[in-house]
Fold each of these.
Amino acid sequence: QVWIEGLLHTRRPDTIGYVNGLPLWLAEWKGPTQALAEAYDKNLRDYRDTIPAVFDAHGFVILSNGIEAVMGDARAPFDAFAPWKRLEEEAPEGPAVETLLRAACEPARFLDLVENFLLFEEARGGLRKIVAKYHQVLGVNRAIEAVDEIGRNQGRLGVFWHTQGSGKSLSMAMFTEKVLRRKGGNYSFVIVTDRTELDDQIAQTFAAVGALTKDVRDAQAGSRAHLRELLAGNERYVFTLIHKFSTAEREPMPVLSERSDVIVITDEAHRSQYDQLAANMRAALPNAAFIGFTGTPLIKGEESRTREVFGDNVSIYDFAQSVRDGATVPLFYEGRKPELQLDEADLRDELDALLDEAALDDAREARLKKQFARQYHLVTRNDRLDRVAEDLARHFSARGWRGKAMFVAIDKATAVRMHDKVKAAMGRLIGEDAARLKTAREAEGAALLDRLEWMRSLDMAVVVSQSQNEIADLNDLGLDILPHRLRMQREDLEAKFKDPDDPFRLVFVCAMWITGFDVPAVGTIYLDKPMKNHTLMQTIARANRRAEGKTAGVIVDYIGVFQNLQKALAIYAGGAGGDAQPIKDKAALVAALEEELGAARGFAEGVGVGVEAIAAASGMARLSLIGKAVEALIAPDERRRELLRLASAVVRAYQALLPDERAAPYLKPVAVLHVVAEAVRAKLGPADIKAISARISALLDEKIEGVAILTPIVEGVRAEGRVDLSAIDLDKLAALFSATPKVAAETLRGVDETQAKFMLDANPTRLDLTRKLAEMVDAYNAGAIDPEIFFEKLKAFVAELDDEERRAAREGLNEEELAIFDLLTRPEPKLTKAEEGEVKKVARELLERLRDLLDAVDWTAGQQTRGSVQSAIRVKLNELPEAPYPEGLWNAKVAAVWEFVLQRYGSARAQ
């Protein structure tokens, strides 16, 4: 541990790791009983503001409570921090702390991380630092080993199977950059995809992380001749489509380059990179090495062909493991087929040959409509689409987590038609809610108003590829593509959809955006298009990315792809020898909710609170029982924290199940736990009762009896963290204490803590007051004093705070002058009355002198203005009486006043 001095503050982090004098990693350690998030919220966030220079050269941060351990970038959100599960890919999971420390802090591994596994990405809002996850490090290093064995494996570097959402594109960049650092030479990397939009996306990713330093378009091969030219010029990165390797029937593939320092990287190595195209790649680049990156496993029949080109699996990180690690969220299946529906047999046999093509061109689409006219007609019948649109509108607006959603239609015309139908259905829903709002009671009305505002702000759009004669073709069907095409050309719809705060929340597609398109805010995929195999798996994986507040993704099936989904999932989960299903029926969410409810009920019953009894009661009886529950659960602190944790888990599980009708039986117990938790929170500090009521009503979609329990008991003005102590009705509190002593004590404690913090911020010499309060609270939590004694001590503390607040007036000073006076006199020296008068004069005149200097904008940033303030303090403090302030004490007082001025006036102006 070392003290780090910032511009305005001094801090001492738990551990700093230095390499040649550079602080390259930092760790914060908490006790086993403390939540891991406390190390982030209480320490790391503070360090970012107070000692930011410690992170100028840093690699990563470790946070641990002795049981759990995670690592990440200092400026990343907490949910971006991740554990390190194992040291080798096939090894079992080890103890969390030991495994992470060995993986990140052993010298060789540490240097490897800092050199090869930190990326800086140009993202919305500025530069973003990325610290690789353990599966990326292990996988890339396995691929590097294959490059080292390139003679033995004959250029077949392997298949790198890491599930969608686990950072596969970034792993590619880490792999190529490490090859360049480790191997040297003039390596060129040819990144091969099978769609133009994927080619653009992967090239833009490489550019965003600084691997590709030239214009993206200059690195994309526009033709076979251009590909040959780029390889001849030793370009570092070349991006091309697999179709550049196609030839006419029986026409031999010409050699494009005989270089042996070319590595071909194919994205999704098993879609079309086989047979003649694979052979052509080999013929065009006879001495190149090949590695395939994929987010889905090889299906039966593909393995031998793929291994001929790429070799065996070099690294596997499957869906189930990524969910266990928290790298992605779990997916849940919800079948919502309308009554008018195809028989599953209608979607088999020859139709399957077209299903795995994510993007049908005009010819294939025409063939689909002609060859399967009966099936196509059933899917696109107007009355069926009406039912789907009505259901989608209600489902989308009633979800527990209001993320974004994608509707996948069978073709372009149906995407446009569904956009118009869903828009109309949303309009009808808005009308229904507006009518209900007129007669709704307060809590229900607040929830309805919130939902109405959300629905009215909703933006939806169609995103489909262009085709010849599309305007005329869709006009023949009674549809107008023109306004949609104008939006696609004039607006950056991709950026809007990726922005979690943009109201563009629902998109209608048929082929675009369903592969290689990452939007963490997407929580729901509405499937109304026959699909199978890799395209199906890649489409549903759009919903598995992590986002704030998102606990799961939901796949809503309108078309009946369940059989195809089961087949794909059997391959997907079993590809690595596992049997865990990466997508589950929503029945699993019912089980999860029952488990969370059981734990919460058991905890409540352990302290005499009957959740079912409260749910069964009504009117004043319910209010009384909720009040008693709050009394039983509000203290001590550990009990209250456990209640809030369990209640939050129950609410999350309930919201994940919505709007499923199976949530209905759990409504009342969920309501009880949520209301009790919110009532406890309302007792602890200022509460927006209307907002809390709206949250409860919105969660449960009904008026909740007993919301009045949330009304704050202590009335008074609270502004900028300050409590008007004179407004506290101690007689009212005493009356309350006789009925609910714990609630009264916690209420008064909240007042005391708020005011004590405000007073300490104004005057740092009042630290003894906050320590005294903390000792009282610790004794109460430990059971050393009962609620009656605690309450009396808190009342006495209120009087002490009030007396301290009046002291400035008694001394003939204002609060700011009193703070300077206290710094100069506490804890020493002892002064005579005459000397006290001299010190007060110095305090008044010092602040008067500093006012002009402190008015400068950002005065702490300039060396000259900082020096002027320091000089003014020293000059004025020279006027202190000499006898009580020998040189050593005088220097200490100068330093204390300078620190106070920095803290009080520097940080305030910076904010």
Amino acid sequence: MGEPDGAGAAAWWSTPLGQLLAGLGSGAQGLSPAAAAERLRAGGPNSLVEERRHGWERQLLAQFASPLVLILLFGALVSLALRDWVEAAIILAIVAGSAILGFVQEFRASRAVAELQGRIALTVRVRRGGEVLAVPARELVPGDVVVLAAGNLVPADGRVLEARDFLVSEAALTGESFPVEKQAGEVAADAPLAQRTNSVFLGTSVRSGTATVVIARTGRDTAYGDIAARLGTQAPQTEFARGIHQFGYLLVRVMIVMVVFVMAVNQWLGRPVLESLLFAVALAVGLSPELLPAIMSVTLSRGARDMARRGVIVRRLEAIENLGSMDVLCTDKTGTLTVGLVALEAALDADGRPSGEARRLAHLNAAFETGIENPLDAAIIEAGRRDGITTAGWRKVDEIPYDFLRRRLTIVAAPEDPAGLHLMITKGAFDTVLAACGSVERDGSARPLDDAARAELERRYRAMGEAGLRVIALARREVPARSRYDRADERDMVFAGFLSFADPPKPDAPETLRALADLGVRIKVITGDNRYVAGHIAGVIGLDHGTMLTGAQIAAMRDESLWRLADDTALFVEVDPQQKERIIRALQHRGHAVGYLGDGINDAPALHCADVGISVQGAVDVARESADVIILRHDLAVLRRGIEDGRHTFANTLKYIKITISANFGNMVSMALATPLLPFLPLAAKQILLNNFLSDLPSVAISTDRVDRGELAASQRWDVGEVRRFMVVFGLISTVFDLFTFFLLLRVFGADEATFQTAWFVVSLLTELAVVFVLRTRGPALAGRASTLLAVSTLAVIAAALAVPWTGSFAAAFGFVPLPAGMLVASVGVVLAYLAATEFAKRRFYRPRR
């Protein structure tokens, strides 16, 4: 990979810091609010993508971008050239009406979504005007001074002004898995990105420590922005979006065949070319669900608003459908299945006795740590505050940060009175701390850590875990005085004791798990905690803990073995971040739609690869920005309601597609078959367009419709095969009744062209509208009540359809005439018979397959 900074770009990482600050017009206290606002106006937002304000003009014009609409507009121009003013006006009016309908819905939906997403926008602590303010990351400008801490995402490229134990993960840019320590200073202008230790870059994340940084480059001018521009970036498609595209290709094939067939037949019959072309195009328009983008926008944004009211914020609208299809949810236990209020239960020596020395060592380690804030450290510091323990008399010398391979953190401290030796204090996972020890503290002295002593410590550790306590270990060592220490110094330590923490299960956890099971969602716990405490919690809340895999077992497995075992395993314990990702991919390989709930730095890989990444509002930046969905309360009950909303949204979107496409398909097949059999067109192009426009009006209300309980109780997956079968079965039922209507009108009533077209316009529109009440539910049509808005809007258009032939000049403009009473009664009878046949077919279509 070449250098991300373009040729000739100023090497700001090598410029003397004072000179860089002067060039940026900034200082240690940053910019004034007025200067920052002016730079934002001049340089634009801190965004990788060029942000265009999609105002109403752009959204309105987008409604006319369809090739079919452009063909209709061309037809209107031809009509104008031929001075057929009425035909041209009708086409233009219907096209404009459809465009305005779609525009209004999409514009309102986009406004609602922008408002929701603004509630969870990434913010950065910035020094402006002598204060530290929380500023949206997109409003950062060169010259801003930002304050970064563990868990933060780096919001732009910049130079370190000052740092304390500041380690940054640059894997996204350099591929280096271990964090890199950053500090103030200068590096050579030709230093590669991985060696610019005085700079931080957009797309990386802070693993530990704190720093203040002056921003030098934002948005597309950053190293990450340059890479993104060259590689191109696009969010992965959801399963539902892929299904929509597959179905779109099917419609295009059907349209091409139908248009070519109709044009060929009309030319063979010697009908006018323009009339035949407009008729064929109108057929194609009639087959396409052209309001689908608007319906999807409305349905998804409505779903997002409903979810927001229940405490679930959607960052990416398309994730709503994946939330509905989710059938496995992977989660940590802390704060999800437990109350999340961690308290230090006891500090014990190696013999299991309460120990003031263990409390003191733990307090020094937690108080001096500058890594990721975590509830264990908070509990240690709170207990020390109550017991009057302080860091007085000690100063911090160095820190060896926590990582997910060592699973421990070390602090080196020195007494204020120099004594020649420093004190190294390590706390972390029991097995990794024990591995760093060569002796154990007993009765104030260090004893060799032999096999018997190890076995006794392991027995005590296991007993506390099986009692439901989370346990970490402590070790200490006096080391020669130096200013820097590293991982190699964590050796020959003295095992100093245990820290046990209580975090009891939530009282409602068993009920929540049962509710999720009723929705067809299985819970799998993936945790770094030890097997004993995880097994205890699982047993208390009713989760199957007989099936368990440890991180060590997973590490020794081939992917094929994990694919086989993951499905039947409920507990994955003692795992690292990469193993979390492997587990999720294994479940996906088994055909599951997998959700992952996490809030820490170590959860980012799993959140990225899950079908639905879920985090909480208080999560670290890197987790929150990796997620598709944010829950405002760390509670599975909130997520359960979000899943129901996702399924409701999925079901109503699919409902629109099925109902509209089957009705349109039936009508279009009928007209295509009727073309060579009738001495005239079954409907004029303008009549088809009016039919399509009126039938679309109630469709927007489908987003408000009720959904069958059965559809909420199981995960919903896109099945293009089922949609195709639905279209063919119910479309051809419509065609059969259309052909019967043709026979009735011609042979029984002897209808002329205008009467035939009027009668069939009414019948086809009534069938397309009334069938909504039958096909909107899988159960009996009369047993399920449609939403008020859907019912009222559909009945209103039905009334309009019946009234159209008697609307005088409006009817005349479209070529309609009043219908004889007998013909109107017969038409209504055909519609009722069609609805009865559709209800019968629906029950057979949805009956359980053996």
Amino acid sequence: MNTVVIVSAARTPIGSFNGALSSVTSSDLATVVIKDVLKRADIKPDEVSEVIMGHVLTAGSGQNPTRQASVAAGIPYPVPAWSCQMVCGSGLKAVCLGAQSIIMGESIVVVAGGMESMSQAPHTVQMRSGLKMGDATLQDSIVADGLTDAFHKCHMGITAENVAKQWGVTREAQDQYAVTSQSRTEAAQKAGFFNQEIVPVIVPSRKGPVEVKVDEFPRHGSNMDVMSKLKPCFLKDGSGTVTAGNASGINDGAAAAVLMSQSEAQRRGLQPMARIVSWAQTGLDPSVMGTGPILAIRKATEKAGWQLSEVDLYEINEAFAAQCLAVVQELGLNPNKVNVCGGAISLGHPLGMSGCRVLVTLLHALQRTGGRKAAYVGFATELEKQSKQLLERMGIISKAVQSDQVGDTQRLQAQVASLEHSLQEEKESQRSEQMRWREILYTLIVVPQEPLRTKLQLVDLSGSECAGTSGVSGAVLWESSCINCSLSALSDVLSALAEQRSHVPYRNSKITHLLQGSLALSVRDFAEFGLWMQSQTDSERHPRQEDCWAEEEVNQQTSKIAQIIKPVNKTALCVGVKVEKMLRAMGKMVFGGFENPKYTPQKSKGDDYEVRKYNTTQWVSTTVSGTEQDEALSTGFRRLFKYIQGNNDKQVKVDMTSPVTCLINPGDGPSCESSFTVSFYLPEEHQAEPPKPSIPEIFFENRKEFTVFVRTFGGFANSQNTREELLKLTESLKRDGMKFKEAPYYRVGYDSPFKLVNRRNEVWLIQEEGEE
């Protein structure tokens, strides 16, 4: 079954009823966000297989509003586009439908989400038979089609009153929940947490175009004094508890996500935001409709094999405070994990959009907080990025391990059990905070008989019991000629070890092609390779010394492997050569060892900063405009990576180098577009005549000799810690009276995403000309 991943997700700001977005149709709002999510994922409109959008209030919107949005976004006519309707869950249902389409093999790339302009929902009148006598009454389509229970003929607010009564939720508790929602949203807005997920909308006006880029509905400064004075809206007999303050709003907006299979994301070199692990839906008595998440969340987490306590974040649509409190109470959830940036009470509730809106907010919250597991009303996601747990448990690949050839699987399993036992004893004897435990990964290539068969077996030695071996036919061999797959495979294996899974299945075998035409296929041969996963405890070692040591170590170990393999036969020798290439490539990616541009150290201020003079060099570059630093850097990196992988006029591969630099030219204001020029240093052999790029967005940059002030920092760089380090560098230079340009500045990285410790990042400020 295809594993479905989400590679990009975004939303428009949410407008108030008859507010800033009221003149924009649902389909136009959807067009804006569809264009944006495709751009974020670097996907062309004609690569989309299908577009699905949730939409509730369709009266007067014209035929198939989703297709209107799809075509307006530049997606060709042959691509199907359609709407689904499940009231508040419509946007999320669209995502589930998109995932099903990919799983069934019907689609490759799906754009799914939701849209709504409640401000443009019309009033209607039934006059198809004419008006004989008397008055004609207009019907509000918002109330009739979106907010009234069709079975009990009551407003949704009454169902919230029913929930409050049945679950014992007081008026005070509802008001306090609403104040908390408003406060969380206020804090999130001020911290800029929504900036990355929001795509601005340009709204025409008589005074010219107006850019709407901030949610309009939140009420900053909300407090219990004001909230407690609001009158109940639905029960006026003194028993009512639901007010305009503790209920969601009537709003406008759109949200969308791009879905594809995990293998498709790997083929494109895309880093998924999340993997869809499970989803669930359930029905219940409409008179208490808001408690549906209780059953759905239980069902979805059960399908995923999760405990409720293991989930890092929950998003529960805040139609009403009473309903959210009932769900939290019934499931025993930690309130600090629920709607951490507020919800529909504070942000607003555009009916067709909301299901996807909470998904978008959830994904970005997980990335920001480093969480791995999340759930929203039966929809579960698990981040592909390595979690803090993985960083704690995994070290760096530092040695290649060999053992005697074995004649059968039983002997291998016995050997594994013995190793596991010895490692367990080592763990007990060396248990300390400074020592992290070793793990062993075995890839076993088996050629038992004709027809040719291949297996990859993963043995996890981290547990107290031997995990055993579990082989699957069709394995991917990590090799330098398929570096994209190599990185993806390494990511999957690290995840498997962290999660204590017994094996990792792979498809699209490279080994099969590698062994075609080999001799002695009837002979039972085993070539066994392993990688020690060991932490690097010597954190004081200088990065350059570490790089030299690592490259030398990899060379020694791969040479040993080659010597072991050579006597076996041509088949194993062929595999050995490829494995040697793989290890050398992985060695560089994990340890460094890339070719660097030459520079001359001028001055050092210890850990504070240093001054370097770089020689004149040639770089290949691309410029990306946007408001999000991390996203722009990712987009630029993918473009350049395709270039060095052969997307050039000579169709040759260019060796990866370091560092990767990003020249950042900030915009005029905090929310204005900035310019990001991402660059790879060209290896010495290509400095004079580099291969010409195949796309106009990539160009060559001849950097003349220049001097920079450099501050180094560790960990995984992001826009936030880069800005913090830049501020520290600026303050140090001003303190020392140095003359420098405050903009543009460089963000610089030296390491692969799969180097987990001793990472090296830098910020550069350019020295003013004439300054010595």
